[in-house]
Design a protein that fits this description.
The complex is a heterodimer. By secondary structure, chain A is mainly α. Chain A is built from 17 helices and two strands. Chain A folds into two domains: 306 residues, ABC transporter involved in vitamin B12 uptake, BtuC (Orthogonal Bundle), CATH 1.10.3470; 69 residues. Chain A is globular and about 65 Å long. Chain B is α/β, with parallel strands linked by helices. Chain B has a domain of 166 residues: Rossmann fold (3-Layer(aba) Sandwich). Classes of the chains: A mainly alpha, B alpha/beta. At the A-B interface, helix 1, helix 9, helix 12 and helix 13 of A face helix 4 and helix 6 of B.
Chain lengths: 417, 261
């Protein structure tokens, strides 16, 4: 019976092929990946490195430990928004309301900590209220998309206008609300001592290494082949270098010295959301709905529920980002949530490699994309360029990144991968 | 093969408004048998399998599963009985890999509610191996990179791995080349060898005569005969598809004009 199978075209059995894959070695695979356009995050990381080298020569104050810390704090809020954008883009939807939704969070957190207002709560409670409120708003917007069937572009465009209007109405009367609560302000202004920084880097590295080891052991136990052991070791080493390196640089900064809490918060959300996307059935279903909603529905997945939950995540992350952005300024004013925040957040996710058409992308792409945008903005700023130049350069980078990605995808289709 | 058919439909009637899609249709399939379902476009093939799959209801008639009358009111009822349908458009997610597609919507979790990837990967490899699907290079590659035949194999494997007893395949070879068709037909045979009941809908009589044990012909919403592939000829089937006469007159059993055989 099984002898007939060999008629079928590339009829090679599973075990032999896996062995062949092992034997072909690292360079063979790297060549294969380049040829087939399966580049992953490599081009964008190289791009980021080039940007850093460029500005190091261009601006004297750029390549310093102080500025490194600056960039981390500058990009933290944006990264949080971009994390949410990744989930929405994975579904093939869009959320245009997150910019002003982050403004709503800033407004809420400022309002609920305001001493003498009659509704002053502890900072942490105010933060939770603000994030929960944004998540709820996201859920309502998502429900209109998922249950009624109005396109997300329209629903969230309406959201953009509505929440901008709410912010204007409230702040036109109140003017600026100053945030005095230490808990809230610490999200953007707290720096760990050198020892604690090392401790945190050690914990993150150890957790990653243990998690990876656990995965390998589970695979061994189930008798499933562990692919590319060299790559696994390289990944763990890479994470260790990134964590320890970050702390080493941050500890070298003069004012303010140490690892910024905002950066740690970004890493915590990166880990939690990556776990959600890659290790839970919910995350799997998000990818499935983005890839083929009909197939997901037939597989028994509640598509509407997934959509609503994703918009709640998007709203919540806008809320978290809004709190950090407000904390950085220690206040909330009429410009909150406006400017290029929304488009920067979407650009960050897309530059990092998340597809606008759903089903393809990673949580970490938001972090890498946000790092590119923040570095370029900071670099041009430091080198004395004006806002106009910053917009133009960011636009060109966005175009380049997406063009590269599109070419890569075409190569993938052509090589049948 | 057992004597009681696994699935037996008796006098199924279904109309969409004034259009009579199925009238008084009898149909059966046994364990370990490939029953082909043929008919011209609009003969009621799809309506019939959708009835069995619980996609829509029926007006009259009864369904027996394992000899016992059952009611199928939705896809979940069908799945509970062990009936799985592989639709023409396959319903796979291109961006997910083979393992992820196989377990879509029924993911295995470990004690921390995490996806239990090793277990799913191992079981997928076993299922594919038991079906002798060996042309897939890696079960961790996205379905987008598979050929049409490989996708069909994945869709079929997905349908059979849930202890299903009856697999219904809707035009599984319609869009495939020669080698790919070969692959899928072999797979269909293997399903029957494993003791599953298979219903195969196809327009390709050549394929049908190769893998099917019996053929049910539908014409204009009526069954016009059941043929044994060992004794029937392709000409007979073509005649039945284009000009067959019902073997029984609606409402009056056993008044069949002896034309069909």
């Amino acid at each position: 019976m099984s002898s007939e199978v060999e008629i079928a075209a590339p009829g090679i059995g599973l075990p032999e092929e896996q062995q062949a894959e092992e034997e072909r070695g690292l360079w063979g695979r790297a060549y294969d990946n380049i040829r087939t356009g399966n580049l992953g995050i490599l081009p964008i990381v190289i791009g980021l490195a080039l940007i850093i080298v460029f500005f190091s020569f261009k601006a004297t104050n750029f390549f310093t430990a102080d500025n490194f810390n600056n960039i981390i704090v500058q990009m933290a809020g944006l990264t949080m928004l971009a994390f949410g954008v990744v989930f929405v883009l994975l579904l093939g939807e869009i959320d245009l309301s997150i910019g002003y939704l982050s403004g709503i969070a800033a407004l809420a957190v400022a309002e609920f900590q305001l001493p003498g207002s009659g509704h002053a709560y502890p900072g942490l409670v105010a933060i939770l209220i603000a994030v929960a409120l944004c998540s709820l708003i996201g859920g309502v917007q998502g429900s209109v998309v998922a249950l009624v069937g109005v396109p997300s572009f329209v629903v969230t465009l309406a959201g953009l206008l509505i929440w901008q209007g709410v912010i204007l109405q409230v702040l036109e009367i109140k003017g600026v609300i100053v945030i005095q609560d230490a808990w809230i302000n610490d999200t953007a202004n707290y720096y760990f001592t050198a020892e604690r920084g090392w401790l945190i880097a050690g914990i993150v590295t150890a957790l990653f290494a243990l998690g990876t080891l656990g995965g390998v052991i589970a695979k061994r136990r189930a008798g499933v082949a562990v692919k590319r052991p060299v790559m696994i070791v390289a990944k763990v080493l890479g994470v260790a270098v990134a964590c320890l390196g970050t702390v080493a640089i941050s500890n070298h900064a003069n004012v303010p010295q140490g690892l910024p809490l905002a950066g740690v918060l970004v890493v915590i959300f990166l880990i939690a959301l990556t776990y959600l996307a890659k290790r839970t059935p919910f995350g799997r279903h998000v990818y499935a709905v983005g890839g083929n909603a009909e197939a997901a529905r037939r597989a028994g997945i509640n598509v509407a529920r997934i959509r609503i939950l994703v918009f709640m995540i998007s709203g919540a992350m806008a809320g978290v980002g809004g709190v950090i952005l407000a904390a950085r300024l220690n206040s909330v004013d009429l410009n909150v949530g406006g400017g290029t925040l929304l488009l920067d957040a979407i650009s960050a996710a897309v530059i990092g490699g998340t597809s606008l058409f759903g089903g393809r992308g990673e949580v970490r792409s938001a972090l890498i994309g946000a790092a590119v945008i923040a570095t370029v903005t900071n670099g041009l700023d430091t080198a004395g360029y004006k806002t106009g130049t910053i917009y133009i350069v960011t636009g060109v980078i966005l175009l380049l990144a997406v063009t590269l990605d599109t070419i890569a995808r075409r190569l993938q289709v052509r090589s049948g991968r | 093969m057992s004597d009681t058919p696994l699935l037996q439909l008796r006098g199924i009637t279904k109309s969409y408004g004034s259009v009579q899609a199925l009238s008084d249709v009898d149909f059966e399939v046994r364990d370990g048998e490939v029953m082909a379902l043929v008919g011209d476009n609009g003969a009621g093939k799809t309506t019939l399998i959708k009835t069995v799959a619980g996609i829509h209801g029926y007006d009259h008639g009864e369904i027996l599963f394992d000899g016992k009358p059952v009611s199928i009111h939705g896809p979940k009822d069908a799945a509970r009985l062990g009936i799985e349908v592989v639709y023409q458009d396959l319903a796979l997610c291109d961006n997910l890999d083979v393992v992820q597609n196989m377990y879509l919507g029924r993911e295995r979790r470990d004690f921390l509610f995490r996806l239990n990837e090793p277990a799913m990967e191992q079981r997928t490899a076993e299922t594919l191996k038991s079906l002798a699907v060996t042309t897939i290079r890696s079960i961790r590659q996205p379905v987008a990179s598979l050929s049409g035949g490989q996708r069909q194999s994945v869709a079929v494997a997905k349908a059979v791995q849930w202890n299903s007893r009856l697999v219904i395949l809707d035009e599984p070879t319609a869009a495939l080349g020669v080698a790919q068709t070969r692959q899928v037909l072999d797979l269909v045979k293997r399903l029957a060898d494993k003791g599953l009941a298979v219903v195969l809908i196809s327009h390709n009589l050549h394929d049908i005569f190769e893998v099917a044990t019996r053929i049910t012909v539908l014409r204009l919403g009526r069954d016009v005969g059941i043929y044994d592939t060992a004794t029937a000829t392709q000409e007979e089937i073509v005649r039945a598809i284009t000009a067959g006469v019902p073997t029984k007159v609606s409402g009056i059993p056993d008044t069949a004009p002896e034309l069909a055989s």
